[in-house]
């Protein structure tokens, strides 16, 4: 691994479950910390972990992880060069076909290149993956694909393809406790243009988290009309909380547009803790923009915890709203009623060392904690609930302001000469001049 030229110190991705966090480095290593029960940390025990600890995937020289995902109590890791997160099951794909499919459909599938998983996601107690042909797979506690319109949650013990999207390309997917949001190509091919994507949703809709204008459950995907083919908006990021959804969009460019258009964050679903950021505790079944975010900003990352939401701009500004425990706010930050201190509108998250989280990479939200990766991936901050070591700073206390995660960890794997990435970047610049919540939160 050391000969690959990739940095073991640079973080490329993070994922947060209800009470644990995963971290992926540029050279394909994965670290975890937080609550260890049910084996979600992948460290060989159920003990809590207060600092980032490396997960071993057999011989580390032969396994390079390229993507990670965290559900409520489980974790996923996708290895480069492997056909699946569980290869023995994915090889069965060509034996499967829709009940009403013809022989020509099977022959068409057999003529395509070998299948390989390219993306994984997790949420609640379900897992999702997208393969290199753009097909979506799901397993765990998932919505049952039904022709009679009857909704139910079933336990799929093996990955099952979502046949509704046959003939289209699934580009991105996110899921909450029991609902799924997917960005799917308009036609049978996809050239990378955001304008060519349509938003679909299905699953449990008891709070309007599907964005379909009602609270009726859906066993099969339906188009979110606010973002259909005729919409003025292009979606580029999606995220799901337990019972709410957040999207990032740009307005579709017109022929004469030359400048990058500002971002808009939309939310819908459960709003009792202010997680929609609309200034109220009302739920909504129609996507609505978060009005109090600054205009003319470029939002690069969004994520949802159980009951809070967080976004990051390209300039390094971070805003969060929703349940106070997940925000890491002081108890009197925003008082609503006698006891509540939830934030009903976006509040800026401060960096104790600088004004902003410069060179941001990503934000991830757990049940009641938030993790921010910035400085091109060389610094990691956390805030919120601290029990079980979920903040990765060696403590079990709540933090009301962002605190540095111990990164890189002080273990033998990192007793190699560090290239001082931050100083080298400075030199280079110089040259250039609930319902469903089962764990206490």
Automatic annotation (TrEMBL):
Protein name: RCC1-like domain-containing protein
Top-level division of the source organism's lineage: Eukaryota
PROSITE patterns membership: RCC1_2, RCC1_3
Keywords associated with the record: Repeat
Limits of the RCC1-like domain: 107-405
Residue ranges of the region described as Disordered: 417-441
RCC repeats: 28-81, 134-186, 197-251, 263-315, 316-376
Pfam families hit by this protein: RCC1, WD40_RLD
